[in-house]
């Protein structure tokens, strides 16, 4: 553009030299030069504006891309934090159950520890500290080769986070003592052992058996809750919502009902 302008001006100067007698405002050559100069100025402005427009468009595209990347990072961070919270809640829940069981002897039927009473048995009351300690000693000293002793051994493995060994022990217990009053407890804790190792299909089957074989179990609400949790982990959202809604409606005042409502709220926020 600058070279063109210089060339036009140089040519105009030569032409103007031969027309010195004509007033500038009437000189057709000068008029033509002025017109060319104006047009050239307009072209320069258009080119300049187009460059600025392209630059502006590039900047907007970069801003949009950065915003999209930030959204992706936020989603990843949220997913990681949700996974960490879920694991913390899972282990906290299991740890609380274990501590209550330890305090009450581990296999006392009908307590709120998470062990269920045999079908038709009257709910047990909370014993004084001395009685609870005596029960713990009796459970710990249960003879191997009996249902009580083998159950306690399997439960001790679970309590000590030896999950695979605990699974094998509970499975053996259920095969050896299918009619034991502790069988429904063993079935439930087998499901918990599977669940904590993320073997969700196996855990689901075990919790199903609690509901099917022991419909009067005091662990029925917890077994149904964990059934819904298994469906959730397996991304079977409709089944998870159905079971968790059932638990929330049937056990509104129990901890199982409260946890079911929390998971339903989580599913809603996740748009499942």
State the gist of this model.
With 272 residues, this protein is mainly α. Helices cover 75% and strands 0% of the residues. The chain is built from 10 helices and no strands.
Could you walk me through the main structural features you see in this protein, from its secondary elements to its overall organization?
This protein is mainly α. It has helices at 2-17, 28-104, 129-140, 147-159, 163-176, 183-196, 200-213, 220-233, 237-250, 255-269. The longest helix is centred in the first third of the chain and has 77 residues, at 28-104. Mean pLDDT is 75; it is low at 105-140.
CATH-derived architecture of the largest domain: Alpha Horseshoe
Number of domains: 2
What is the count of helical runs?
A: 10
Which strand-content bin applies to the residues? under 5%
SSE string, helices as H and strands as E: HHHHHHHHHH
Within CATH, the superfamily of the largest domain carries the name Tetratricopeptide repeat domain
CATH first level of the largest domain: Mainly Alpha
- Unreliable spans are 105-140
How far from one another are the termini?
62 Å
Rg, Cα atoms, Å: 40 Å
The quaternary state of the protein chains shown equals: single chain
Principal-axis shape equals rod-shaped
| Helix content, binned percent | over 70%
CATH T-level topology of the largest domain? Serine Threonine Protein Phosphatase 5, Tetratricopeptide repeat
Count of strand segments: 0
Mean pLDDT: 75
């Amino acid at each position: 553009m600058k070279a063109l302008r210089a060339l036009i001006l140089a040519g105009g100067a030569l032409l103007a030299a031969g027309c010195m007698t004509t007033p500038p405002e009437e000189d057709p050559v000068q008029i033509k030069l002025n017109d060319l100069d104006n047009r050239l100025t307009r072209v320069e402005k258009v080119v300049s504006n187009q460059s600025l427009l392209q630059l502006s468009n590039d900047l907007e595209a970069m801003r949009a891309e950065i915003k999209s990347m930030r959204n992706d990072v936020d989603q990843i961070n949220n997913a990681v934090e949700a996974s960490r919270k879920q694991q913390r809640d899972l282990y906290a829940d299991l740890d609380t159950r274990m501590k209550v069981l330890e305090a009450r002897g581990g296999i006392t039927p009908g307590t709120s520890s998470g062990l269920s009473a045999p079908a038709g048995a009257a709910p047990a009351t909370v014993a004084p500290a001395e009685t609870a300690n005596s029960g713990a000693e009796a459970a710990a000293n249960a003879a191997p080769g009996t249902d009580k002793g083998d159950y306690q051994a399997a439960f001790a493995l679970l309590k000590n986070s030896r999950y695979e060994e605990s699974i094998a022990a509970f499975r053996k217990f259920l095969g050896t003592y299918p009619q034991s009053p502790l069988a429904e407890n063993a079935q439930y804790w087998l499901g918990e052992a599977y669940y904590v190792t993320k073997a969700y299909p196996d855990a689901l089957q075990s919790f199903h058996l609690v509901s099917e074989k022991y419909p009067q179990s005091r662990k029925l609400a917890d077994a149904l809750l964990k059934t819904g949790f298994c469906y959730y982990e397996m991304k079977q959202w409709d089944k998870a919502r159905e079971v968790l809604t059932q638990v929330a409606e049937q056990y509104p005042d129990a901890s199982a009902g409260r946890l079911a409502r929390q998971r339903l709220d989580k599913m809603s926020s996740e748009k499942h």
